[in-house]
Write a structure and sequence with these properties.
heterodimer; A: about 110 residues; 6-stranded mixed sheet; 11 strands; B: about 110 residues; 7-stranded mixed sheet; 4-stranded antiparallel sheet
């Protein structure tokens, strides 16, 4: 039973524009959310996170928004760069747990 | 100075064989994990060890046995390999206090023929 869902398997954006990646979750116990970036033949790399007490967290070009009532979060990348082309995984966990629950990922392609 | 390393990177073997994948982290973390990424690209937790003690054991067949000789190592041994075990296996580590920010190794692609 998949508790974290990324319904868009792929996204193509022009360089300089905004990329918006979406994620939905079903488990109301989740209180910490992360985004990971993955290049081919490499492991996922931590990008940005947000706890449930916040609705926004920003780090440079990356901003994560959390809407708890809708059980939805999104990652905004502004401006998008070709080097951002990768698979982005949304992950969630509960404070009492150790495991991360991952979505299936969204493949982002940023074209020049 | 790789933070989380795994060996081997690729592993091709026959059904029925026994194989091991090694993982080491030099980040000083006290918690380590094994994840499996299947053909549908879904990353799923298999095991978690905290200070060498098993914390999480998801519904993984008994043929999979993790071994943690010390806090810096978490090896995965697989007995009687089956076709369905073909996947990419990722090791990860975290400091519990860091609240689940996990650092991943590069993955081991296992192919069972």
């Amino acid at each position: 039973d998949q508790q974290v869902k990324q319904n868009s398997p792929s996204l193509s954006v022009q360089e300089g524009r905004i990329s918006i990646l979406n994620c939905d979750y079903t488990n109301s116990m989740f209180d910490y959310f992360l985004w990971y970036k993955k290049y081919p033949a490499e492991g996922p790399t931590f990008l940005i996170s947000i706890s449930s007490i916040k609705d926004k967290n920003e780090d440079g070009r990356f901003t994560v928004f959390l809407n708890k009532s809708a059980k939805h979060l999104s990652l905004h990348i502004v401006p998008s760069q070709p080097g951002d082309s990768a698979v982005y995984f949304c992950a969630a966990s509960a404070y009492s747990g150790y495991a991360l629950n991952f979505g299936k990922g969204t493949s982002l392609l940023v074209t020049p | 100075d790789t933070a989380v390393s795994q060996t081997p990177k690729y592993l091709v073997t026959q059904m029925g064989n026994d194989k091991s994948i090694k993982c080491e982290q030099n980040l000083g973390h006290d918690t380590m994990y094994w994840y499996k990424q299947d053909s549908k690209k879904f990353l799923k937790i298999m095991f978690s060890y905290n200070n060498k003690e098993l914390i999480i054991n998801e519904t993984v067949p008994n043929r999979f046995s993790p071994k943690s000789p010390d806090k810096a190592h978490l090896n995965l041994h697989i007995n009687s390999l089956e076709l369905g075990d073909s996947a990419v296996y990722f090791c990860a580590s975290s400091q519990r206090e860091a609240y689940n920010e996990q650092f991943f190794g590069p993955g081991t692609r296992l192919t069972v023929l």
